[in-house]
Amino acid sequence: MAIESVGESIMSKIAEFLAEPAIRQLRYMFCFNNFVQEFNEQKQNLTLEQDRLQNAVRVAEWNAEEIEKDVNKWLEDANNEIEDAKHFDEQIGNNGKCFTWCPNWMPRYKLSKALAKKIETLSKLEEKSKKFPTVSHKAPLQDIEFLPNKDFTPSKSSTDAFKQIMEALNDDKVNMIGLYGMGGVGKTTMVKEVGRRAKESQLFGPVLMAVVSQNPNVTNIQDELADSLGLKFEQRSIKGRADRLWQRLQNEETMLIILDDVWTHIDLQKIGIPFGAAYRGCKILLTTRLKSVCSSMECQRKVFLGFLSENEAWALFKRNAGLRDEGFALNKVAKEVARECKGLPIALVTVGRALRDTSEVQWEVAFKQLKNSKFLHMEQVDEQNNAYACLKLSYDYLKHKETKLCFLLCCLFPEDYDVPIEDFVRFAVGYGLHQDAESIEDVRKQVCVAVENLKDCCLLLGTESEENAKMHDLVRDVAVQIASSKEFGFVVKAGIGLEKWPRSFGSFEDCTTISLMGNRLTELPEGLVCPQLKVLLLELDDSMDVPCKFFEGMKALEVLSLKGGRLSMKSLECSTNLQSLQFIKCECKDLISLRKLLRLKILDFLCCSSIEELPEEIGELENLRLLDLRGCRRLIRIPVNLIGRLKQLEELLIGDDSFKKWGVGGTIRGGMNASLTELNSLSHLSVLSLSIPEIEHIPRDFVFPKLLKYEIVFGVERSSMSLKMLPTKRTSYSTSRRLAFRCINAISLNAKTFEELFSTVYQLELDLVSGLKNLMLFQRLEFVNVRYCGDLSTLFPEKSWRPLKNLRTVRIDGCDKLEEVFELGEVDQVSDEEKVLLLSSLTELVLEELPTLQCIWKGPTRHVSLQSLIHLTLRRLCQLKFIFTPSLAQSLPQLETLQIEDCGELEYVFPVSVAPSHADADKLKKIFGSGEGEDVFITDEGGIIEFPQLRKLKLCRSGSNLNLFSSNNFAAELPSLQDLQIEGHNQLGNLLAKLLGLTNLRNLIIKDCEGVEEVMQVRRFVTNRRGGLVLQNLTTLEVVNCKGLRHLFPSSMIASLLQLKVLKISGCEELEEIFAKDEILSETHLQSLCFPSLCEIEVRECNKLKSLFPVITAAGFPQLQYLKVRDAPQLTKVFGHDDKASYVNVEKEIVVPNLLQLSLKNLPSIVCFGLGCKNFLFPRLQRFMLGNCPKMETKFTLTQNGSMSAQSEVSQVAEASSSSCAMPSSTYKMWTRNGGWKEQVFDGYEQEVNPAGSVVVASCRGLCETEREGKRREK
């Protein structure tokens, strides 16, 4: 029974398993309509779900949300399934007709089965859509600041700044970078471009940017940074938000934060920026108008962004104004408008966009408005976003009234004017500024501080001289606008070429300041009513007489500056409030009337040559504090005791080109005159400038007073020789302590008289001073210039270490007995506080024409450092055997210029040698050594010594085998070298092999190197240590009198000479080829090479040269303007090659598009201009010279379009030709584009002196064709 029961169970299970599939299969055949109905319902449900999700997605996209990836995938799958379901609709429709009356069971079965499978797929897809928690999420905000910006215009200034910033961003030692510059110069645009590049290169994680502004709002800054990070603050307090931001930012490994428009020091921790030791991964780039902000924020790199050049400015302006090249008339006035914007990007963009699509008349009006500093009067300019508003913001930020007034005083000077800071000082004293100052020097210091603050704000610019400042023209326009307001009452018409008093001037009743500087007025009104006028600056024609009543209506006048014209001081008698009075090149009369100006503090007579004597009444000016008489060449009398009566006098400036006839004890021959003893009665005297031509004029017991600044010249300057040290302008202010001794005997000097001067002097000039052995008496010297002092043997003797601490410049010339410059002793006896490295401030050392000089430094040099030396020049030192000791040779990090000429005994510049046996010999490969006990070990295993700043190296006629190093195992790394000149060296190849890394070489001059066969014969010169070419920046190459030179370069170097502009070769008698064809380049490669920048080629006196360049390269001179070849007896063609195969791929016509001058002279063998090319075209040729070329067969003719054509039928050049028809070699013809042909005959050696545009053609067979063609065209 049990067995039967088990069997029945198994059989029932089998029946069950078999029945279910059978039923399913039967359903496929008999329940077709059910499957169809279920399919339609499921498809409809899926379509509804798809619409629902699609609507949700659309709403999310409108809200700038990012759609979840699985949602997008579901929508894509649903769409595909619904599209696929359409095929089932067609099958159901077709098969349904048959199924009604005569069903076909097999198609019904297959379709039902497929529908069942599709229903299951659609059902699962519908269920999946209900599991999405959300269809989207908030997308991280895209920083639109870092999108490509069309306003970013690459320029030299911006490119340099961008390069510096990117280098700093890649420097691990730099984490704070400051970009500063004038408002509107493009700082924000620049940092946005930096941010974009940083994001593209993935240099950092997040790149964030926030605007700080003039009044920083910490909450706003936090919000800007948080928005870029997608961070939401739940905290309300600034500290809580800062903590949250700090926490979020520390999750990033690296990041760049750009803080724009910073005006003052900001607390990064208060904002929530982890920085410094707290977080090394954060770098900050800030922009500011104030250089001081870069300092207060401790920026390791400070980058200045300057203005655009004229061409760069025009390109930016043209783009914003929508100008086209073909609009010549409009572009002409548009360029003038662009020039008035002075390279300031915000002005160029603002004005350009404002004038876009306007008429020419509107452009002309705009130009006049800009010219007259009326930027705001332009209707089209936005009142908020323009250069004026931008720059005025910088003015408004100035904190002190005095600084603001100093800024406004700058606009009184003409455009592009180097404003003397000393004029500010004298105007400030007269104007009553800084009344709390006790002395003029105190006022000067405060004015200098104000000027530095204005420079720091980029409202003023520096100049070459520290004595001047400059104001950008647009900044000046802003200053004029501000100063012209009712608040200040300025009238400024400076430097606009006025000759007559402007008719546009109305009432002056509210006027406080008038500036007519930089004009040459030939007329003035009889009088002006200016009751409030305090400052008047005038410039007149020299012949203009100032009306006697001109100043009567100016009772309040305090400052008067008059340049040119003629003036009687009687006209100033009513102006009793005058405190500062300045006359420049003015013819002054009736000086006695100055006695009534009792409030006068400053009196200047600068270059007033009409003044011959000062009246005694000037001594009554009891408040006078500064008297300036420099440049009064005819002044021969200052009454005795006049100077002594000016008890308040602080500064007396007479100079070395004014009064010199000092009395001794009150008398001189011919009358009474002032003496030097009067200086001792001036208790306030602190600044003195004068000349004492004869030592006898110094009273015996006279002692110079203690002075703050002085400039005193003793002796008479020789007319044939003037000292070159620190030349000063005629009216420049003495800012140092300077003594000059000329043509005197040092023995005649009384040491007690000069005790105070000798101990404090900074600048010392000695010219033809006899009896002087050394400079031991001078303790604080900074500048020394010594010339032709025949008794000088040692400049600074042993134990005179004090003068060596501050020395900055030393120049010595023509001292026949000088044997050493610095005699160095031990400084062990010096206290620790006084111990410093001697000569550590020396920046320039120039030694010339010293026939007995044997050494520069004598004695131990371990306490000497040349760490600041920038320029070293040695000329004609015929006994000098060495320059540096080993310890000095390694302390030259700042050396930029090294020039050595005519030092015949020199064998090397730097003393080095191979290291001896040593315990660590495997590491210490090289040493500096000279046997003086000062050997210095160098661990550079390559034997390469780097001179990182050296920019100019000149080695001329200083021994035929002069080397840089005393050992051949050393080489110099010169990454900054730009100028290299070598003369008179017979082992040029060996020398050049020691110069590595010349990646910035610009100019190369080789002269009188007879032993060299190829300039670039040493491949180590051609390549750096990493194998890259290093001549890619070479612009000038000049080779002179290298008698043995056969080749200049291998052809393989052409590709590296892309920047070459000038090529000059002369006196190379053995030169056969300029570029020797080598195996590196095939003919095809050679054809593709060119000289894209070459402008000038000059070749002369090269006896064996047969051609300049392969003709296959002739089309590669797009910029060539000057081509001159002469005195080459074997030259047969300019372009060509001896290899006939070279001409296969040559074009039949070659254009040299920019050639202006062509000169071929004294070339007796030349047959054609270019062999292998039938026609050369010179469309811009202006000058053409061809003289003494009897075999020339090339025909030079003018084409229909006016181009000069050189046509050659020559296919082969013979060594000699007897068929040539030569004209007399002394016959020349000149062709000018404007004047046609002219014939000239020269008796002797022709010297090329021709007017611009002339072309000389002479003695050539093709000349007749040219002349005939010219006459035919004339007919």
Task: Write structural notes for this entry.
With 1275 residues, this protein is an alpha/beta fold. It has a 29-stranded mixed beta sheet that branches. A 5-stranded parallel beta sheet has the order 4-5-6-3-7. β37 (926-928) and β38 (936-938) form a beta hairpin. α1 crosses α4, α11 packs across α12 and α17 (421-431) packs across α18 (440-456). It is globular, with a radius of gyration of 43 Å. The termini are far apart. Residues 161-322 form the NB-ARC domain. It comes from Dovyalis caffra. This is AAA+ ATPase domain-containing protein. Belongs to the disease resistance NB-LRR family. Keywords: ATP-binding, Coiled coil, Leucine-rich repeat, Nucleotide-binding, Plant defense, Repeat.
